[in-house]
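Researcher: We're teaching a course module on how sequence relates to structure. For the next exercise, students receive a sequence and then see the predicted structure as tokens, so they can try to spot secondary structure elements on their own. Here is the exercise chain.
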Amino acid sequence: MGPGVFLAALLIVVGIPAFTILRIMSMRAARVQSPSVDVTERLEAVEHRVDDLQQELAETQERLDFAERLLSKGREERGIGTE
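Model: And here is the predicted structure for the students to work with:
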């Protein structure tokens, strides 16, 4: 058996399976992993809590604006702070 035939046989026996394994591994690595049900539920709970907190923050800001308007109106009526 000559060296060319040996190299061709070696390529067929080792190279093709190695290439196939590498190709499968790269396809699995590129595949999008879907999160588990537990992770999805926890993420939805966090999103819901963030929505609640944003709503509470908006309400608090509205109350603060109202209180500031009342205070400034009272100061203007009494002439406090104006010189």
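Model: If you want an answer key for the exercise: The longest helix spans residues 37-78. The mean pLDDT is 86.
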